[in-house]
Amino acid sequence: xxxxxxxxxxxxxxxxxxxxxxxxxxxxxxxxxxxxxxxxxxxxxxxxxxxxxxxxxxxxxxxxxxxxxxxxxxxxxxxxxxxxxxxxxxxxxxxxxxxxxxxxxxxxxxxxxxxxxxxxxxxxxxxxxxxxxxxxxxxxxxxxxxxxxxxxxxxxxxxxxxxxxxxxxxxxxxxxxxxxxxxxxxxxxxxxxxxxxxxxxxxxxxxxxxxxxxxxxxxxxxxxxxxxxxxxxxxxxxxxxxxxxxxxxxxxxxxxxxxxxxxxxxxxxxxxxxxxxxxxxxxxxxxxxxxxxxxxxxxxxxxxxxxxxxxxxxxxxxxxxxxxxxxxxxxxxxxxxxxxxxxxxxxxxxxxxxxxxxxxxxxxxxxx
Length: 368
Description:
This protein is α/β, with parallel strands linked by helices and 368 residues long. It has helices at residues 15-24, 38-47, 57-61, 77-86, 101-114, 128-138, 164-180, 290-304, 312-330, and strands spanning 4-9, 28-34, 52-54, 67-70, 90-94, 118-121, 145-155, 186-192, 202-208, 214-220, 222-234, 238-242, 250-259, 273-281, 336-337.
């Protein structure tokens, strides 16, 4: 066997997907799975008989690995990721990166000191439909963006340690961060819990990106139907991304408004609004599994020394928005202004890993 050796920590809901994709990726080999539950390990052993089953992280860190992928509850991300980084391993962490901004910042700085790749599994950024959306926006196909509107609702799956915002909104927040490449200025959130008062199961989040561009997110664990839809509306055209439509996930609409007198002109008070109705078309989207793209990208970044698309800094930006959204929820929707427009960096980047370089397994660095 050859390729980058990867160990998986966590064999619950998402872990088997990581095992399958790292096993199938030609650039990696999944050699070990770590979980504290004997029944989970037994189930993994029946499905993947090529991996070594390990009951503790201590045992995993004694192996000769190049990287780990962490798929455990958010509250454990910081401790596990910091231990693995300090042990000289490259780290992929399930979203969100950490439970607090302080923890996420510490992980980014630790990865820099250890010259290790820190990547967050924001899987949608590796969805070919989302990549196509970014291309359309960058090419000016939509014109100036007016708003983003997202609905991500379904019945369950209820989480015990995080609310619906921390569970579902990271998908949409990371997509918007990736597509817009703009800093968020402020955020407001309102929600409530029907199973537990202290754990919201329905929420509405509004993020201001400046220049009259806002994004709205509806996340919900109580909906009788499952919807995964985002609208990107612009001055020229708009598009709808329907993640549940596997054949035509994107539709572009040549529909919108036309202003006889542009805003700010002397005749704005006599502004006339016209309506434009044109064609609807669905751009081609290359097939492919997003999580397989995640595994390949992680391996390529390790081998070539490039920062991941969803690196620790992007993960930190998403955690900063989530933490601010929680503060707004506790303040009944009070608007939270983000420092420096949710600045896009926390420090100068350390030396990149040289192409083809797999650094020693025991790095001379430590968290803190």
